[in-house]
Task: structure prediction
Amino acid sequence: MSSIRQLHQQLVSKERTAEEITQDYLQRIESLEPRIKSYLTVTAEAAIAQAQAVDQKIAAGEDIGLLAGIPMGIKDNLCTLGVRTTCASRVLENFIPPYESTVTQKLKDAGAIMLGKTNLDEFAMGSSTENSAYQITANPWDTERVPGGSSGGSAAAVAADECVVSLGSDTGGSIRQPASFCGVVGMKPTYGRVSRYGLVAFASSLDQIGPLAPTVEDAAILLQAIAGYDPRDSTSIKRDVPDYLGNLQKTSGNLKGRKVGVITETFGEGLDATVKEKVEAAIAQLKDLGAAVQEISCPQFRSGLPTYYIIAPSEASSNLARYDGVKYGVRSDDSSLMSMYTKTRAQGFGPEVKRRIMIGTYALSAGYYDAYYLKAQKVRTLIKQDFERAFGQVDVLVCPTAPTTAFKAGAVDDPLSMYLLDLMTIPVNLAGLPAMSLPCGFDDDGLPVGLQLIGNVLQEDLLFEVGSAYEQATDWHQQHPKLA
Result:
């Protein structure tokens, strides 16, 4: 498994060409995909053409950036001009966007190579990638187990070395939880730090795009490329983006002077004993690195789950109303307009998407809006205030990323049990904060455990600093699945 920096050095020293690197990754995809099923679409021809363009620049003596010639996967809910974008749903089975998302355009401009579009839970609704209408992605550490979700395809592709880095989206933990299950680094930036233009909406006040990568440094390089203000996204933050990589290179690796808060509410009922043990060991490591560690209470933390499952389905109900069979996507032929609407949505959406649309429609309906949606928004404010108080005392908060390690496909068949997997990650989205998951050990079955670092608004650089210090002191990120 190569890092961005290693591949960049090989390119500029002319040890390998971008085309050779791309071909190697495409061959690995061809070899592993029958087992892993990370990709819904592989864009081999376009990837080779992009690589050849990078090689021409190098041959002409032009300088190239760190991402030029770097092969990556893109979650299939990001619009890509001329390339099928399905959101893993039948309703968008043949949708080819007429425009490019801001983040993928930025990566194109940087010379990055898109190998293809990765699998996800349909419309990013799920925690296991079992809700895809097309295939179930396998966890590279144990192919009988799930990779997490909804960005399971992106996380599994990085873990299986089917790309160097990838992009995911995170509405309630959909980057961090699969990062935890697959033993990679996953970063959810501050809401508004990365443009959502061209991200197919699930819950607009929660969605955020971010990187999945083998190391903290690679995540920092990728976030650097995609972050920044975009006038086409009304929620985009008009603030300069720090030099994440430069700041990371200046850090000494010790955390003296940093205050770390351990969220007490995340170590209660439902937390797997081995996960607890590994996360506590990681916290002890942070202390050994010089950080001052203290317990912090966020009383409303556990209110995050019920709050999220009112707000997110309500926004999904509104956003997914556009899939009516008229403008684009699948259409069920019928003589009656109303029947066409009904049949298109019945046939086009999967069970979990239908469930969330119905929950959201109910919560927004006349007579129930105040009792559900309005109350949920008030609790959301209380959760945000908990975090504000916590960051008045510490620099970074820590907790497990997920309460368990990866489970076997089909083992969790109850929707509520599946929702509980996002217990640790959801409050971060409700507050709009940045957070990162990084590997902190393995359970008795050899499955990765994730440590979650949570920062205050726009403090991604601090998460990179703490994450990198931990990474340098351990070797969890150097261990990879054994896939022949």
